[in-house]
Each structure stands twice: as structure tokens, then as C-alpha cells.
Amino acid sequence: MTAQRALVTGGAGFLGSHLCDALLGEGYSVIVVDNLLTGRLTNLDHLRNEPRFELKQLDICEPFDCGRVDYVFHFASPASPVDYMAHGIATLKVGSLGTFHALEIARKYGAKYLISSTSECYGDPLEHPQKETYWGHVNPIGPRSVYDEAKRFSEAATMAYHRYHHIDTRILRIFNTYGPRMQVNDGRVIPNFMKQAIGGEELTVYGDGSQTRSFCYVSDEIEGIMRLARSSEHEPVNIGNPNEFTILECARRVLDVTGSKSKIRFEALPQDDPRQRRPDISKAKRLLDWEPKIDLEVGLQMSLHYFQTAALEQKVRSI
Ligand code: UDP
Questions:
Q1: Ligand 1 centre from 189 Cα, in Å?
Q2: Residues 22 and 136 occupy one common structural domain
Q3: Full-model pTM
Q4: 150 lines ligand 1 (CB under 6 A)
Q5: Does the active-site annotation cover 206?
Q6: For residue 1, is pLDDT > 70?
């Protein structure tokens, strides 16, 4: 029997590249397509000599075909607020045209399909914690709308291909995830704080730091994704860590783990920054028998070496 073949769009990104490792570990052959807008080849360097791995540099906003596949994992999109606001139109296109093209591949080859969606579908949520049944509180024209609406559209397109074309689809709602291979300058809170703490710079807390997020370590996230991929659930499933922290608490954890003496500097809160975010994961627990195992302190400790090296490399490049 030939190995199952998986397509990972955005496989050079943070989560996409970890997903490739997990799929190869399960015996899949993997083909990545990525235009490297925010993904990086270094995330896949370790797979260069892997015979079951292929990489094609292309833009999925144009129709494409990379041969028969059994599973499509659609992960291509800028994902940090700084990146998706810098590349707003590309973000809208990859979440609409790119999503259609990825769905068409699944349709053509009768492949299973999993789309990476986001807690941003809930916007600045009025329901807390967020259950999958909550429809959200999203500003459709604000600066974050390029990402939020692209992902909401992607979910709608995925459900439509399921309903009208009977594609075997899954919708993953990812909450804040961190760990090795994040871009140290992608502007997200953990890379920023780690880089600042390691470099002895002030930690930039936006607003008064009372807004909350719930951080999931990457290995927990990937385990949840693999379990969802094996399931037959077609409606959205939250995969995230329900332990909630204020951003100020998060800054303190980073200072503890790095042993840094950096001070905190308060800066303006970006427009439409969600006040609170925490996944209700009872559905994932029930359906997938999944819950995260790694606490924030432990995950930050496990990421420390990566961020130290990445921060140093960035400093050397900027000299
Ligand atoms: N944040 C911060 N300082 C930073 C970067 C982010 O205080 O240097 C805050 C940001 O305003 C938000 C939270 O941290 O409230 C998480 O931001 P991130 O960009 O990581 O992702 P988001 O959860 O907003 O998509």
C-alpha cells in the first residue's frame, strides 16, 4: 500500500512546520506549498534530506495542483496581528481565493480537509469563556477585519463544500499558541516579551495589561490538531489552553523564566484588541479526549533556548 500523502498549505510557518513533523511521524508523505510571505525555509531545514517530504514555493491564491493527496491541511495565512495588518489584502486573498483552491484540491482527489481557523472568529468576545456555539463580536471593517473576516469566510466556504460537495471537512479554532519556530519579530506578545527580556530591553505592555489571553504550548496544540484530523467532526472545535493570564501576568512569567531585570513600559492599546480570551475546551475533551498538559511557565522554559538563539541571530543580522 502506498503511504498516505498530505498537503500542508503554509507548511513553512510556525504551526505548519510542526504539523509536517507530526504527519511524517505518523507515516504520511508530506507536500508543503508556501509562498514564504511570512513562512521561513529555516523552519523546514531539518527535513531537507527526508525522502517523504517535498516543498513547492507557490502562491495558492492562483489555482494549483500538486498531484493526488489524501489529506489537505490548509494553514496558509499571515497569523500575527503585525503581519496580517502589514499584509491585509494578501490575508484576505489567501483566506478566500486560497481557501477555494485548497478546497478544490480536496474535491478533486476526494481528500479529507482540515482548515486552521482562529479564536479571532469570536472577535472581542462578549461571552466568556468562548464556546464553539458563540457567533462572536467582530468589527467587520476594523484593522483586524482582514484576518477575522478571512477566517470567518474560510469557515463558511469549508461548511459549504461539506454541505454541497460532501467533502469530509474539519474546522480547527486555534487560540494563542507559542513555542520554538515562532518568528522572533512577528510582533506577538510572547516573542516580543522573550526578545525584550533576553536583550535587557523594556517589555512593552499595551494598554494597562489587564486584557487576557490563554497560551497553549505548540506540542499540545499539534496533538489536539492531529486528534481533530482523525475525528469525523465537521463543526468547529476549539483547540487551546484554558489557563487565562492578564498580559501583565504574562510579562512577569517571562521575566521569571528568563531571569531578566528588564522593566515594563506601558504603550497604547491597539484598536479592537480583544479584552479577554479563553477557550471552552469541553468539546475537544469530550470528542477527542484531548486537553493541554504544559503550563505557561514550563512552556516558556522549553522555549527559552530557541528564543535566546533567535534573538541573538536577529541582533547579528541587524549589525
Ligand atoms: N501585547 C502587548 N505587548 C506586545 C505585544 C502584544 O501587550 O509587545 C498584547 C496585545 O495588545 C494583546 C496581547 O498582548 O492584548 C496578545 O497579542 P498578540 O499580538 O500576541 O496576539 P492576539 O492575541 O492579539 O492575536
A1: 5
A2: yes
A3: 0.97
A4: no
A5: no
A6: no
